[in-house]
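User: These chains co-purify. Model them together.
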Amino acid sequence: MSCCAPGAELCLHQVQNLNDEILLASRMVEDGLRQTDLSVPDIHCGACLQRIEAALSGLDRVVRARANLSTRRVAVVWRGDVPPQFMAALEALGYRAHLHDADAAGKDAVLSELLRALAVAGFAATNIMLLSASVWAGAEPPTRDLFHWISALIALPTLAYSGQFFFRSAWRSLKHGQTNMDVPISIGVLLTFGMSLYETLHHGPYAYFDAAVSLLFFLLVGRTLDHVMRERARQAVSGLARLAARGALVLQPDGTQTYVAMDEIEPGMTILLAAGERVPVNARVIKGTSELDHSFVSGESVPVQAKAGTELEAGILNLTGPLTIVATRTAANSFLADIMRMTEAAERGRASYRRIADRAARLYAPAVHALASLAFVGWMMVSGDPHRAITIAIAVLIITCPCALGLAVPMVHVVAAGRLFELGIMPKDGGALERLAEVDTAVFDKTGTLTLGRSQPTITGDTGADMLALAATIAMQSYHPYSQALATLGDPFRRVDLDAVAEHPGKGLEAHCGANVYRLGRPDWAIAGGRCRKGDQEATVAFAINGKGQTYFTFNDAMRDGAQKAVAELTKSGISAEILSGDKDCRVQDIAQQLGLPWISEAGPAEKIAHVSTLRQAGRKVLMVGDGLNDAPALTAANVSIAPASASDVGRNVADFVFLRDSLEAIPRAVEISRAAQSLVQQNFALAVIYNIVAVPFALLGLVTPIFAAIAMSLSSITVVANSLRLNSRLMRPGAPRSAPVSKATIAFGAGQ
Amino acid sequence: MIDFFFLVPIAIGLGLAGLASFMWTLKNGQYDDLEGAAQRILLEGNEGPDY
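Assistant: Joint model of the two components:
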């Protein structure tokens, strides 16, 4: 668990760990000053900004604190070597804060570059257009020449500065012997500029500087939107709590304890692992007993016992008791690293996907260039005038230049991403939306995905409110998932005073109150005589007073909200779903039968990849939904993947979509939106093609003047943008399956269904 | 016509001034927190961006 574990009964060395962790995650800004970036997801209004800034600035040694409402972050600049207690200060105000890595917190350099290029192109386009307008209005030849010269002077630096994104990308693509959309764009823009310059030098009547520059401007708008969308998702995802350890508390041979960063842990080092911490590297237990949560590592939902000699894999969560462990491998060779390697290997398989725009470019670029050459050859033969032939060939390039095509995809994707954001779903990039629209098979992990990874008790025996409050008060003292589930049962205003509560790892909790002894734990330990009520020992907890069993809690996996509905909707939209879990067969079967899905159980990371690859080889388009470390390679191997916000860091990083709310209904919503987006993208392409079919004959006949080109280009771009904006109304049409934002949908369910 | 040519450099100059001021706002971090900026005008005791 991270720095802000619930309960907040941090023992002394955990506070020390937290300070070291903050130090590791901060960066030097100027002499003696360090900056720490915190992600505070609960910032939601101006008053929050003020409260946070006032509270943090009031702390000792804090130089300044600045909260950001858009990114939900706080930057704290402080002095000295020991971090001020800003986490505690935020906690006291009621805000949960997560540490942000120093390297991830840098400003988005590409966005500023794109915005600068966009600003330059916008300035140039408007000024050249103003000059062109006076030329079109019929300026005298000397004035026209002067205006052409001024336009050329503005256009040249603009092409060099704003055009570099396209030129660079086109060059990279050509070097690898491929074409993308940037190749025809670059060729078109450069030839247009070259021809206009030639016309200007020879006092020609027509120059297309405005076309070249406004083309760049429109295309940069598309490019910037695309980038903004991806960046927003990346920030939202990186703002989530970090689940992997940054380091570990190492017991040195001389008896001192130091906090050592992850990469510096060597095999043979002795590590002190407190309850509630994750195992940093593969290790063996040498002292202590506890219970372990394997749910991220293997998908097992029921905690497992640990005692001296147990081998641990990195990423396992230590639940109940402190353990002393010896590292057996370095971080670079740990289970986590194995998973990363498998993920990278699977990544290579995915690289074969080509974005729609690139596929279109593959057809488009040769077609356009062939048409332009044809126009040149044709006019050479008809008129024998090379100047006229070149002018017409370039007019063809200008008219077909994929201005509308450059906007066709990003515009729709930005609108779709806006809808997804509202629903708490973060798409990592536009390609993911395209891949999601094609999906026909959905593979679900169980633990943490279909289920919440939290257990829900069924209560038998004495279910009186007093008894539950007592059990809940005792359960609050433990990190064990069963205890945490029980802790939420009691009435929060009905707390019972207890003299002492002790946790017996592997057994349960024992509390004393006066002469009474309460035990909450395994039935054979809690109840005198060791009687078991049911065969299912590991999933039952008994609450006993003085050895007499009072209440029994049987734990089942709690299904995520909307799991039933999500599966039903996916099936209705033609997607076949199945379960692929690493958990024990009986527990997977239980969930699978409730949902009516086929299942595969006890699958390790390698089997998961194998299964997904088999499906893909059979021609299926696979959507993988999973959260654990063990799912990460399969998430990458699938055509497209979705992870919940509660997923492991690796899982979240490799998934194409991350959904931030608890409900699984996010998945059918995402599929629905991506399919609507896909059909709009196709319409946009169709519009662009129709526009070309209409305009190209004019260009071939030599009827295109600069004013014609300018009008045609703006008109086609506006059509495509307007069509993209229809996505919202499309998804909101009454006939369409429920697509209103979650809050409205809930009201509708309550009233109607 | 030629009498009005002095307007051309003025027009371009104004455009450049606009461009330069946009660049300055970008560099100054004024677009880092658009939602927050809208809220901050309602808060007292805040003397503009501090970095």
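Chain B has a mean pLDDT of 80.
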